[in-house]
């Protein structure tokens, strides 16, 4: 495997990765700060994009074009939608879709069988193997992405976020493998900005831990 891009929406989601980077080099491009080096012997570049679909898509394309990443892993928090996914459970996002956009746009160009972006199958397999080694609940399923909340939310979605489908869309068009790891910070039982703020650091750290476990396995070399 070549170079892996680690993309987060917020600085606090990226922060845990920084001390793990060895041979670290810092570069700035288009108002972003990129951290390059190695984690567990694997070439990586890490960055946070800012929240939302547009920020995430711009940053993903920068990682591909300017930093030549071969795979992108997204790490961060999400809102829980499934009754079985509790706060601080981690979701391996096997697919993603937009919830606040006319979905016909994305089945027209690029041509898709459905307006859903599946994650890379090899990355999902690696995540399955990693899930068997960690000591907290891991779920596999769909995440729904949008900048605003709407009524058009898939009944099968496990979690809800603001970036995943946008990054998946960019990766699909560039033929770059992609997987998102999201940990639940809030849900229908416990919700609101105060809940997200209270749970943010721990939720973000669990997503970080899961990705570090994936990188540590040796199966991504």
Topology:
Layout: E1 4-8, H1 11-14, E2 22-29, E3 32-39, E4 42-48, H2 53-67, E5 71-80, E6 90-98, H3 104-108, E7 116-118, H4 121-131, E8 138-145, E9 159-161, H5 164-174, E10 178-186, H6 193-216
Parallel strand pairs: 1-4, 1-5, 5-10, 6-8, 8-9
Antiparallel strand pairs: 2-3, 3-4, 5-9, 6-7, 6-10
What does this structure look like?
With 221 residues, this protein is an alpha/beta fold. It is 32% helix and 32% strand. The chain contains six helices and ten strands; from the N terminus they run E-H-E-E-E-H-E-E-H-E-H-E-E-H-E-H. It has helices at 11-14, 53-67, 104-108, 121-131, 164-174, 193-216, and strands at 4-8, 22-29, 32-39, 42-48, 71-80, 90-98, 116-118, 138-145, 159-161, 178-186. The chain has a five-stranded mixed beta barrel with strand order 5-9-8-6-10, surrounded by four helices. Strand 3 and strand 4 (42-48) form a beta hairpin. The relative contact order is 0.22. The mean pLDDT is 93.
């Amino acid at each position: 495997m070549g170079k892996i891009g680690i993309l987060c929406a917020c600085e606090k989601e990226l922060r845990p990765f920084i001390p793990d980077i060895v041979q670290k080099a810092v570069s700035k491009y288009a108002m972003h700060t990129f951290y390059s080096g190695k984690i567990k012997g694997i070439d990586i570049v890490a960055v946070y994009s800012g929240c939302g679909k547009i920020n995430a898509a711009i940053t993903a394309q920068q990682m591909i074009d300017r930093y030549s990443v071969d795979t992108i892993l997204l790490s961060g928090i999400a809102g829980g939608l499934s009754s079985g996914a509790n706060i601080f459970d981690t979701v391996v996002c096997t697919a993603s879709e937009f919830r606040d956009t006319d979905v016909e746009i994305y089945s027209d160009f690029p041509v898709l069988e459905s307006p859903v972006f599946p994650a890379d199958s090899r990355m999902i397999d690696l995540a399955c193997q990693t899930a068997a080694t960690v000591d907290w609940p891991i779920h596999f399923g769909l995440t729904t992405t949008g900048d605003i909340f709407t009524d058009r939310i898939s009944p099968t979605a496990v979690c809800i976020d603001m970036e995943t489908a946008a990054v998946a869309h960019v990766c699909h068009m560039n033929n770059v493998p992609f997987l998102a790891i999201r940990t639940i910070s809030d849900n229908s039982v416990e919700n609101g900005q105060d809940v997200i703020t209270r749970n943010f650091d721990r939720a973000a750290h669990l997503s970080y831990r899961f990705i570090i476990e994936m990188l540590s396995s040796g199966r991504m070399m």
